[in-house]
Design brief:
two-stranded antiparallel ribbon; mainly alpha; single chain; 152 residues
Length: 152
């Protein structure tokens, strides 16, 4: 930041420097909004939501604003700048992405196994229904019909 002051000024600019310095110090403590977090960490909104939900990204609270031209207010999480800086410095985004990829792979494998088991059960049930005994046992009231002696 550069402050240009005319040479003939009488020193009033020292007060301006104090105000600017105080404002810059206060900016460091402002919470980071979601869009900025995505830009800083180069993550997607889906990753931000997933990591916020499972606690990897810690929320510093929420803010509610009413956007101009909108009827409703929106509420969103804000983040502590020091935590975002820590995530960036320790390259936790890469670690979290690897963990998510591993979890997704395991979930796909588990779902494929479950689907194969379901298909096998359906095939076994369909095969069992093809036998004559299975078709006869499926009829309701068959035992009553047999008791009347009509099957001899």
């Amino acid at each position: 930041m550069v402050l240009l002051v005319p040479e003939e000024s009488d020193g009033d600019w020292l007060d301006v420097i104090k105000v600017i310095a105080g404002t810059l110090r206060a900016i460091e403590d402002l919470p980071v909004i979601p869009r900025e977090v995505e830009d800083i960490l180069t993550i997607s909104a889906a990753e931000r939501h997933r990591w916020l939900k499972d606690g990897r990204l810690q929320s510093a609270g929420t803010r509610t604003v009413k956007l101009q031209g909108r009827a409703r207010k929106i509420t969103f999480h804000v983040f502590d700048p020091r935590q975002i800086e820590d995530v960036l410095d320790r390259d936790l985004v890469s670690v979290w992405r690897e963990k998510d990829a591993t979890t997704a792979s395991e979930n796909r494998r588990r779902a494929a196994g479950k689907a194969a088991l379901t298909r096998a059960r359906k095939r076994a049930a369909a095969f069992a229904m093809k036998t004559p005994e299975a078709r006869l046992s499926k009829l309701e009231g068959w035992d009553d019909f047999d008791l009347d002696g009509l099957l001899r």
